[in-house]
Write a structure and sequence with these properties.
mainly alpha, 13 helices
Length: 207
């Protein structure tokens, strides 16, 4: 279909498709919006989410390779998370793990990384996230970013004892106040959840 150059109309079509549970309509709308405004990562994210909702993994992968530039994808960690899902559905493990690495690399801060982790944890098949983070942390134990990534995902997984240990590694490697706060607050919250209230209080007060 033809649309005005303004993306408002195709975005409305995409939103109506979602509201009416018509995934093909949603894909048509968001695809047109993404084509009209390639500089806006939100439109690409909406399109990939629609592909995922429709179960159209192959179409998502094809679109990502034929119609999207590297810089466009790198501006949208959420779209990369959906692409991880697509590769998982297609049993393309190498591409899936490469896209996990890419999503982690382009996430700009801890909050965004946590959203990325939550999305990746919903991917099908063997856990591509925790497995990959363990490998990366083991390869370079002195890399604080790799240790922080593992620390966050272990918390989300509820693996509290191990997360506390990794948090201590983060603390030892910390070079900024932000890193120290991330480590100590995370450890304090985990200690409280484990019923170690005195330890949790001590860690809170050390921040």
């Amino acid at each position: 279909p033809r649309y005005p150059a303004d993306t408002a109309w195709p975005l409305l079509l995409g939103e109506l498709g979602e509201a009416w549970e018509n995934p093909n309509m949603a894909i048509d709308g968001y695809r047109a919006a993404a084509e009209l405004s390639r500089q806006y990562p939100d439109n690409l994210r909406s399109l990939f989410a629609a592909f995922r909702a429709a179960g159209r993994a192959q179409d998502m992968v094809r679109y990502s390779t034929e119609r999207v530039t590297t810089s466009q994808l790198d501006r949208s960690p959420a779209a990369l998370c959906d692409l991880v899902w697509a590769y998982g559905e297609l049993n393309q493990e190498v591409e899936q793990l490469e896209t996990v690495d890419r999503a982690l690399r382009v996430a700009p801060d801890v909050a965004t990384k946590t959203l990325v982790f939550r999305s990746l944890m919903q991917s099908p098949g063997p856990d591509p996230l925790e497995q990959r983070l363990r490998e990366l942390a083991l390869e370079q134990p002195g890399d604080i970013d790799r240790q922080k990534n593992l620390f966050i995902v272990l918390q989300l997984r509820g693996k509290m004892e191990e997360a506390i240990e990794v948090g201590e590694r983060v603390m030892q490697l910390a070079r900024s106040d932000e890193d120290r706060v991330v480590a100590r607050l995370g450890q304090a919250i985990l200690s409280d959840r484990l019923g170690r209230y005195d330890e949790g209080q001590r860690l809170y007060e050390s921040v």
